[in-house]
Amino acid sequence: MKVVVLGSGAWGTALAMVLCENGHDVTLWSHRAGKAAELAQSRQNPQLKGVTLPASMSFSGDIACVQGADMVVCATASYAVRDTAKAMAPYVTAETVVVSVTKGIERGSHLRMTQVIASETAATACQVVALSGPSHAEEVSRKLPTGCVSASDNAKAAELVQDAFMNSYFRIYTSDDPVGVELGGAIKNVMALSCGVCDGMGFGDNTKALLMTRAITEISRLVLAMGGQEATLAGLAGVGDLIVTCTSGHSRNRQAGILIGQGKSTQEAMDAVGAVVEGYYAAQSVMELAEEFGVEMPISQCAYQVLCHGRDVHDVIDELMTRSKKGE
Ligand SMILES: NC(=O)C1=CN([C@@H]2O[C@H](COP(=O)(O)OP(=O)(O)OC[C@H]3O[C@@H](n4cnc5c(N)ncnc54)[C@H](O)[C@@H]3O)[C@@H](O)[C@H]2O)C=CC1
Ligand SMILES: O=C(CO)COP(=O)(O)O
Predict the structure, then answer these.
(1) Burial code of 80-117, b = ≥16 C-beta within 10 A, e = fewer?
(2) Helix, coil or strand: residue 287
(3) Scanning 22, 90, 141, 172, which has the fewest C-beta atoms within 10 Å of its C-beta?
């Protein structure tokens, strides 16, 4: 297949490597033409240290490279997905399968990323599939065994994506629940930030277990209210992704949280991480959705207060721990 990966950050690059390994004709697109030239020349991406990009990988800074692609993988930060989808739309046809690997919720519209892409490519009627799960780019690029979920209402499209990506170190399951898969991936970023804050404040393993367990309860409330499936939340895109992101040294969201827990402002922490911290961008949408669907999300509420309103983390945690008593 001819595959174009949009976004040459850590994740787009790692997935482009998997697709090259699987024998596809792969072009990695960067929104800065200069970055495409740098990648082509150095075969190294500073966001994936120590990894050499395969000789078969092509690079482009021109969105017209999407022309003729059988598959397009959208791997930009969530805030850039709509503009990127709009730019690629003229080159997409009904036969193109578009894969969203971005974990986010659009601010304002509260749309999932596949919905944002579908709205910009509606005239073409292309299929849009979500690929998500516990998968740090640093490990996938080193071919460490990893599992993800390919989710779509269209079973054929989900299987096509499964076939394109799956190999001996990247195992893909299919799912008919894009709502659960995408929301699980987006909301866990808020939880990873919160876990990082607890780590940064010097809290212990008990705290982390408490937070992660209540986090999955909280994620489930909203996802089920929005039409997602309970089984998805027990799977790779639910509890699986929550585990990896709340515990991994690779996690950008957790790293940002650690710095906030150590006293940095949200902006200082995001600048220090130097890659997209999706939990920050999702926090407000999660709060608005919780209100719209009438579900209680106390951890997300606290994270939102700290991230977006600069509230003191000690005060917020005290509030969280001293909420009215209840049954589990
Ligand atoms: N890094 C990882 O291990 C994983 C990341 N993801 C998700 O993938 C997405 C990208 O993450 P990373 O690659 O880690 O982030 P990154 O910070 O390394 O890369 C961000 C990407 O967005 C692109 N971008 C930024 N502004 C843009 C604009 N205005 N127009 C077009 N493109 C623009 C950048 O060029 C870059 O390709 C996020 O939603 C993240 O949650 C999902 C699974 C694993
Ligand atoms: O979603 C991811 C891994 O599954 C990447 O996000 P983090 O880097 O914040 O963990």
Answers:
(1) bbbebbebbbebbeeebbbbbbbbbbbeeeebbbbbbb
(2) helix
(3) 90
User: What are 69-110's pLDDT values in tens digits?
Assistant: 999 999 999 999 999 999 999 999 999 999 999 999 999 999
> Is the ipTM of this structure higher than 0.90?
yes
Residue in 276, 278, 280, 281 to alter for ligand 1 test, most ligand atoms within 8 A of Cβ: 276
Query: Measured from the CA of 138, which atom of ligand 1 is nearest?
Result: 3
Cα of 131 vs centre of ligand 1, distance in Å, is 14
Distance 11 CA to ligand 2 centre (A): 9
Ordered structural domains, the chain, with CATH: 2-176 (3.40.50.720), 185-321 (1.10.1040.10)
Q: Half-sphere exposure of residue 44, counting CA atoms within 13 Å on the CB side? A: 5
Catalytic residue among 188, 264, 325, 326: 188
pTM of the model: 0.98
